[in-house]
Fold this protein.
Amino acid sequence: MSDNSLYKYLPAIHARSMLERGELLFSNLTRFKQMEHEARGDVLEGCHVDNPDNDVVLTNLTTGRSFSGPFSFRNSVRDEKVFVYCTARAYDEGLYQAFGADRCVEILDIGAFARRIRAAVRRLNFIDPLGLLHGPVTYFRPNAPCEVDVSVGANIPFLKHSDFADQSEYRFAFARKGALKTLRRIIVNREWDTEPDHLKGVGRTLLLTIGPLNDICRLHHERVPEMLK
């Protein structure tokens, strides 16, 4: 294993199609928001939450009136129009079980992998001019300052709650035109129910085929303990 590799945990049939044909299944952020799978589902996909432990003072700039309360600040993108492909930066036996996988594809050349995805993305006529974005996920705690600028739309798909930090994720992402340009910024009560929001929209997938990957990838098998053989 290498610290410079990425890892994709998959069932055997999908690992084979990835290696032989370069089939990569991108999902929009809405799909992850609505997914009930413990490791994959996250109602905060496409969103950053600033939720201070203390009450927040808000001032109406028109009237000058101030009031305080348990408020939460949320910046989000148009999650239905942002598609991501998720990998991990670590080889971890525990991630096989977490993702229901028995194979792991190790991506040995991240630069070449990204170039092949970028070429396939360019052939899509509805893609935002930003094209393919990729990089490690930043894990945030709502009650602490974020390491990246949450006012930049292109950063939001690469943010996840610290509850998922053990996945050490690295993402490849692209969006439909305009999806990352304008952020939805709202102030809500800290106890705001997220369910009506994350059930909106339609979860979608998009299959990209980037060609055989055997030259820049290798396959690993889940290690089954002797007692279970």
Q: What stands out?
A: Residues 110-122 form the longest helix (13 residues). Helices lie at 12-21, 29-34, 93-98, 110-122, 195-198. The chain has one domain: 25-98+110-208.
